[in-house]
Design brief:
215 residues; alpha/beta; 9 helices; 49% helix; binds BIS(adenosine)-5'-pentaphosphate
Length: 215
C-alpha cells in the first residue's frame, strides 16, 4: 500500500506516520528526516539543504526526487510506503507519478491532516529531541521526567533550528502556497483523498486515520 500523509508542519505527520507504518508493516519515507540525517552527517547534500531548511523554505525538487527515487528502489519499499512530508510541490507530485508509472506501482490514497495554525505554533514550540539518541519529546504533550534531559539516555534535549515561531509561520505560508494545491491535484487525478482532524490525543487521531483507511 502506498499512502501520502499530507498536512502542514506540526500537523502530526511524523507521529501518526510512524504508528501507521507499524500498523501496516511498511516503511515510512520522511524527506525531512532524510534531509536532517544528511545535515547531521555533513554530506554535500546536507550542507546545501541546510540553508533552505533553517529558513523554512523548500529544498529544490530535483534534490528531493533523487532522494525519494533512491529509497523507493530499496527492497524494504517494495510492499509499499507511507510518505510523510513528500510530495510538497506540483513537480514533486508529477515526479512521483513518473516513478510509480516506471515501477508499475500505484498510489492508494492521500490522507490530509487538518490542524489550525495557532495549535500548530504552540505544538511546535514544545517540540524537543534528544541530541544523543534522537528520542522525540514535547514539553506540553509528552514531557521528559526531568526537564531538558532524555529519559532514555540522559542526553540533552534540544529544539529544532526551524521551530522558532517566525520560521514556523513561514513554513505554514509555504505549505499554503506550494503544498495545499496538491489536494486538488490528486482529486482531479481520481486518487482517493480523505481529510481528518489532527487535533485531539495522538490515539484519537490514529483511530480517525485507521477508520478513514478502512473505509
Ligand atoms: P519536515 O521535517 O517534513 O517538517 P514539517 O513538514 O514542517 O513537519 P514537522 O516535522 O514539523 O511536523 P509533523 O507534521 O511531522 O508533526 P510531528 O508528528 O513532528 O521538513 C522540514 C524541512 O525540510 C522543510 O521545511 C523543508 O525545508 C525540508 N523538506 C522536507 N521535505 C521536503 C520536500 N518534500 N520538499 C522540499 N523540502 C523539504 O508533531 C509535531 C509536534 O507536535 C511534536 O512535538 C509532537 O510530539 C506533537 N504532536 C503530534 N501530534 C500531537 C497531538 N495529537 N497532540 C499534541 N501534540 C502532538
Amino acid at each position: 500500500m502506498n499512502l501520502i500523509l499530507l498536512g502542514p508542519p506540526g500537523a502530526g505527520k511524523g507521529t501518526q506516520g510512524a504508528l501507521l507504518a507499524a500498523r501496516l508493516d511498511i516503511p515510512k519515507l520522511a524527506t525531512g528526516d532524510l534531509l536532517r540525517e544528511a545535515v547531521r552527517r555533513g554530506t554535500p547534500l546536507g550542507l546545501s539543504a541546510k540553508r533552505y531548511m533553517d529558513s523554512g523554505e523548500l529544498v529544490p525538487d530535483d534534490v528531493i526526487l533523487g532522494l525519494v527515487a533512491e529509497v523507493l528502489g530499496s527492497p524494504e519499499a517494495e510492499r509499499g510506503v507511507i510518505f510523510d512530508g513528500f510530495p510538497r510541490t506540483l513537480p514533486q507530485a508529477e515526479g512521483l507519478d513518473g516513478i510509480f508509472a516506471e515501477s508499475g506501482r500505484r498510489l492508494d490514497g492521500v490522507l490530509v491532516m487538518e490542524v489550525p495554525d495557532d495549535v500548530i505554533v504552540r505544538r511546535i514550540s514544545g517540540r524537543r529531541t534528544c541530541a544523543d539518541c534522537g528520542r522525540p519529546y514535547n514539553v506540553f504533550s509528552e514531557p521528559p521526567t526531568v526537564a531538558g534531559v532524555c529519559d532514555v539516555c540522559g542526553g540533552k534535549l534540544v529544539a529544532r533550528v526551524d521551530d522558532d515561531e517566525a520560521t514556523v509561520r513561514r513554513r505554514l505560508q509555504v505549505f499554503a502556497e506550494e503544498t495545499a494545491p496538491l489536494i486538488g491535484y490528486y482529486r482531479a487525478a481520481g486518487v482517493l483523498v480523505q481529510s481528518i482532524s489532527g487535533e485531539g490525543a495522538v490515539e484519537e487521531v490514529q483511530h480517525a486515520l485507521a477508520t478513514a483507511l478502512a473505509a
